[in-house]
Amino acid sequence: MILRAQVGSGVHGTSIGGQDDRDEMGLCLEPPQFVTGLARVPAGVKAAVPAIEFEQYQRHTVWDQPGGLANRSGAGDLDVVIYSARKWARLALAGNPTVLLLLFVPDAEVVYRNLIGAELTDNAHRFVSRLAADRFLGYLRAQKAGMTGRARPHTNRPELVAEHGYDTKYAMHALRLGLQGVELLTTGRITLPVPEPSRSYLRAVRRGAVSLPEVIAAVGEVERELEVLQRSSLAPNEPDRSWVDEWLHRSYLSFWQSV
Asked: What percentage of the chain reaches a pLDDT higher than 90?
């Protein structure tokens, strides 16, 4: 393990009164036999093959309850994903909003970080590029499509749709992604938790205190800003792949020499 931190609603500042699970993300360096050799890990429950190359580890405490994998995480549950540093880097270089977030988590929300992890977060700017605009837009539009349940009738939260007329959590995430994407492409960073007054507005959306037409308009506005930034952002066209490649190589060798 080189880095592990909270990455869910708690770190965004958008959690509502004990309704949320705790989401954590981390990075690890695999032992050499899992990179240069044939070592594999179990593929998981109901997998088509018994073993696969290691890319990530997931732990969801709600799966321990009756119902298993069909259960949805809720208040008090812990969801953890630990990526291979190599897989995480590929996703981050492509501008993936979920994994990029780990670079900007404040110290108070960091569960573990060693010197290799600290070097990574100190060089967060090397991962920022215009490629992120496409990824943030894609994630935003996916969340927007699920707001009413028409595009995602089997994955939205029917209890929220019944109470508010739309899935308020999807709506909040769509707007949050837009706001954070705009910030990243204009400043090179993501502020956590979300700064005010945006944080309070996001919480109001999540509570269902904002009408669906207003939410759609707000999401549409940040979506258009991201579309402009796809073409005009001062962010570099590409991330610093050479630095990331060198960091990965050096970090893995250092770990392997110590074991």
From this structure: 75
**CA atoms of 152 and 149, how far apart (whole Å):** 5
Asked if residues 139 and 226 have their Cβ atoms less than 8 Å apart, the reply is no
Task: Give per-residue pLDDT as tens, 16-36.
Answer: 776 678 899 999 999 999 999
Q: Is the peptide bond before 193 cis (omega within 30 degrees of 0)?
A: yes
Let me know the angle formed at the C-alpha of 99 by 96 and 100, rounded to the nearest 5 degrees: 75
pLDDT score at 159: 73
CA distances (Å), 101 to each of 12, 89, 205, 229, 243, in order? 10, 12, 21, 19, 19
Domain boundaries, the chain: 3-127+239-258, 131-232
The amino acid at 38: L
Residue 129 — φ and ψ, nearest 5°? -155, 175
Residue 135, classed as helix, strand or coil, is helix
Q: Three-state DSSP class for 95?
A: coil
What is the pTM (predicted TM-score) of this model? Answer: 0.89
